[in-house]
Amino acid sequence: MARVTLENIRKSFGTIEVIRDVSLDIDRGEFMVLVGPSGCGKSTMLRLISGLEDVSDGTIMIGGRDVTRVAPSRRRLAMVFQSYALFPHLDVAGNIGFGLSLARTPAGEIERRVRDVAERLSIADLLTRMPRQLSGGERQRVAIGRAIIRDPEVFLFDEPLSNLDAALRVRMRLEIARLHKALDGVTMIYVTHDQTEAMTLADRIAVINQGRIEQVGTPMELYHHPANTFVAGFIGAPAMNFLDGAVDDSGAVTFAGVTIMPSQPVSRRGRATIGLRPESFRLAGTGEADLVARLDHVEPLGAETLLHFDTPLTVRVNDVVPAVEGDTLGLVVDRTRIHIFPP
Amino acid sequence: MERENRFWRVVLLFLPLSVFAVFVVWPLFSSFWYSFTDWNGFNPDYAFVGLDNYARIWTDRLFYGAIINTAMWMVAAIVLPTLLGLALALLLDRQIRGARIFKTIFYLPICLSAIVVGQIWTWIYQPDWGLLNAIISFVAGEPFTHAWLARPGSALWSVIVAWSWQQTGLSMVIYLAGLTAIPSDLLEVCDIEGATPWQRIRRVVVPLLIPSTIVVIALSVINSLKGFDILYIMTGGGPFHSSDTLAMHMYNESFKKYLMGYGSAISVVLFLIALVIIGFYFRQLKRIDEIYG
């Protein structure tokens, strides 16, 4: 159980600064997800925390201890890599017990602890198998087993599910969430570019863009109160709709030729970018449409339907819509869920 | 279309296959045939002698000496370049200053022909003015004139050193390629798990270099079995057959004593030894492939 604190972290490779003055406080036992597009610096941040990369400037504290210049093995953390990083020449037991054998732990104790971890991860019957003989999900569990056997205070996950197929990813996501509960109080820092993983796993999410933290908050805070268009566009699938618009002196919002009075007061005045989630619309009944748009494409997903309009606008409705491409439909905007951003 | 393709395939394969047939297959089968004859290498008249040449091998004292020398030669020619190549690769794989220059320097000898290497080392071993004795004299503070290549006790080992000097560069390059292929996250696991540099090499790097080691050893075995030219130029198998290997012995019997039939029988034995070793190599390759993919 350890609190992780990053204070004014900077990291440069040559003249390129990839992490720019990042400060972040991760509570003990918290599941923090670092999310962002490819190349935003989230994996670098994880590597800085692990000690695999040295910071150019700033301080990293784990459990109240300054570990900025401490070797990775002395930071009391474990890391699960995207590629699983299993040793091909060692069997499952050898991989899980690798760290213990390096520390010259007695063979009997290694065997007992490996079996214990393997049973917790339901891979006890795979202990004599070689990594090559395992499926992706099994390899992932072995990698997690190697991490948890060390009793770390902090778990680092570097995109651990990105090599798995969609169905397995959902299953492993659940298992990681269960693991976090089972490991009671272990701090987890999880890097992903997949916002669904971020939303479903995180206690809090840090959205990273170009080496900076754009916003930190709970999944719902980020979803409902994004700080800027980047966070608003990154969190949520399909992405939030952005429309050029303006806010007049009375606080009414105008976009796509429509003027609407939001239910909450708006502080910004003048030109603005109006953000509307796909579910912030409903199909209009007779005479109640806020705006009318031509349907460009329909994506029936079973439980819901995505309607793509030529405005351009994406709308999510829970019903099966009998409309076809080219139809003109009326839409009503949810006044409580209008986001106003600087233009 | 398919027929036309087949035609061109046959036409294009014809030339290399003919060259292969004339320069490899035909001499190979000729050797087999001559090993059952008493041909002297010149006389068109020769007789079929059955297994006489092979029976003679059993009573040839020099053959046994050559077998022992070949075994020593092979073991040393495998172990030394492999270990030295691995050590150099591990040293030069790190981001140390001048690594690139050192890599080039260590690789350079493999670009020289064995004759040139043999000649260079013959000079180095020269008893009166050779570099080695000069260094020993300087260090010992008194004249040292050991005839390295003219003493039965040191001749073979002196050639082995020269051979290793030449072959180490090749092993080093193969190991460097192998080191590059080791996924960096496996080494990072070592950092996180707290492996010491020695544990990292012994428990992770060396096992992950097994595919490279198999290639290095295979090349060393094949090259050492063929190792004739450097021995020929440095010792000629002497003194008193002390550096006679099978290849050298075969050459002496065939081209110095004009016993081409007997020489062919020795070459067939050498071929069979190579076949067994290469067969073992392929079996190991299959096993390695199963583990490392």
Descriptive overview:
The complex is a heterodimer of chains A (343) and B (293). Chain A is an alpha+beta fold and 343 residues long. Chain A contains nine helices and 20 strands. In chain A, the strands form four sheets. Chain A has a six-stranded mixed sheet, with helices on both faces. In chain A, a hairpin with a 4-residue loop joins β16 and β17 (305-309). The model of chain A has no long low-confidence stretch (mean pLDDT 91). Chain B contains 13 helices and no strands. The mean pLDDT of chain B is 89. The radius of gyration of chain B is 23 Å and the shape is globular. With 293 residues, chain B is mainly α. Chains A and B meet through β6 and α3 of A and α8, α9 and α13 of B.
In short:
The complex is a heterodimer of chains A (343) and B (293). Chain A is of the alpha+beta class.
Alpha carbon gap, first and last residue of chain B: 37 Å
Low-confidence stretches of chain A: none
CATH topology of chain B: MetI-like fold
Tell me, rounded to a whole number, the average pLDDT of chain A.
91
Overall morphology of chain A: elongated
- What is the largest interface, and how many residues per chain? A-B, 26 and 21 residues
Helix content of chain A: 10-25%
Through-space gap between termini of chain A: 43 Å
Assess the beta-strand content of chain B as a share of residues.
under 5%
- Sequence stretches where pLDDT stays below 50 over 5 or more residues of chain B: none
Write out the strand line-up for the largest beta sheet of chain A, numbering strands in chain order.
Answer: 6-7-8-3-9-10
Question: How many E strands of chain B?
Answer: 0
Helix-strand pattern of chain A, N to C?
EEEHEEEHHHHEHEHEEHHEEEEEEEEEE
Largest sheet features of chain B: none
Report the oligomer.
heterodimer
Helix/strand/pairing category of chain A:
alpha+beta
Q: SSE order of chain B in H/E notation? A: HHHHHHHHHHHHH
Number of helices of chain B: 13
CATH top-level class of chain B: Mainly Alpha
- The proportion of residues forming helix of chain B, as a percent range, comes to over 70%
